Amino acid sequence: MSTIRVHDKEFEPYLSQSAIAKQIKSIAEQLNRDYAEKKPLFVAILNGSFIFAADLFKELSIEAEICFIKLASYKGTKSSGQVITAIGLDTEVFNRHVVIVEDIVDTGKTLSEFLPQLHHQQPASLKIAALLHKPDATVYPISVDYLGFSVPNKFLLGYGLDYNGLGRNIPEIYKLVE
Ligand code: IMP
Ligand code: MG
Predict the structure, then answer these.
(1) In this structure, are strands 4-6 and 9-15 parallel, antiparallel, or unpaired?
(2) Each residue's pLDDT tens digit, 98-133
(3) What is the C-alpha to C-alpha distance for residues 65 and 2, in angstroms, rounded to an integer?
(4) Ligand 1 centre from 77 Cα, in Å?
(5) Residues with CB under 6 A from ligand 1
(6) Would you say residue 7 lies in a domain?
(7) Residue 131 in contact with residue 23, Cβ under 8 Å?
(8) Is residue 14 part of a domain?
(9) Which atom of ligand 1 is nearest to 83's Cα?
(10) CATH of the domain at 66
């Protein structure tokens, strides 16, 4: 595989489709075990997590529900530091076993703002599943309960992740060439 160009930047291959699929299967196995009989509610955070959420959800063999909220904090290749709720939660979480589904935990800002809002509604339990985590970018510490890959503090693209709107449809994950 070779580098690709999106807008003004070059990206190089980083995680293959098969590596991603393997990690998702492993996360799903853990969830199938931990949430059997619990009818969990998955809350996926749009836009970035839509592909991960769909692929993960298809691997679940237990009874489970999913809903979506839309939060945004990124501008270009840097976090803007401001989290905007574009579509809010429309599903009752009281007494539910909730699993948040995120594409990537970067500074932790998005989840640090959203988690207290959810806690306030008293779910029976609250865990986080994220495909990617950048531990070196942490500003607001978040513990990811179900993780696909721990990644370096580099800008990534593909598999739902965008650079200024483009690249979400790329089936692999690419890394910015610096
Ligand atoms: P945080 O609030 O800083 O943790 O950032 C979380 C959100 O920023 C993620 O859900 C992504 O949508 C976006 N994001 C963080 N890192 C990247 C990246 O490397 N590429 C594309 N989007 C990213
Ligand atoms: Mg996101």
Answers:
(1) antiparallel
(2) 999 999 999 999 999 999 999 999 999 999 999 999
(3) 39
(4) 9
(5) 48, 73-74, 79, 102-110, 155-156, 161
(6) no
(7) yes
(8) no
(9) 2
(10) 3.40.50.2020
Answer yes or no: is 176 within a domain.
no
In the predicted structure, residue 74 carries a pLDDT above the cut 80: no
Count of domains for the chain:
1
Supply the range of the domain harboring residue 131. 20-170
For residue 134, report the distance from its CA to the centre of ligand 1, in Å. Answer: 9
State if pTM tops 0.85: yes
Is the pLDDT at 38 greater than 70? The verdict is: yes
By most ligand atoms within 8 Å of CB, the mutation choice from 103, 107, 154, 169 for ligand 1 is 103
Give nearest CA residue, ligand 1 atom 5: 106
Q: What is the DSSP letter of 36?
A: T
What is the predicted pLDDT for the residue at 78? 72
Report if residue 53 sits inside a domain.
yes
Rounded Cα distance between 106 and 37, Å, is 32
Across 2-16, 60-74, 147-161, least confident range = 60-74
Query: What is the per-residue pLDDT for 100?
Result: 98
- Hey, what's the torsion of the CAs at 133, 152, 79, 166, to 10 degrees? -90
Q: Which residues are catalytic?
A: 106
Dist. CA 12–CA 175, nearest whole Å: 5
Mutate which of 7, 102, 106 for ligand 1? The one with the most ligand atoms within 8 Å of its CB, which is 106
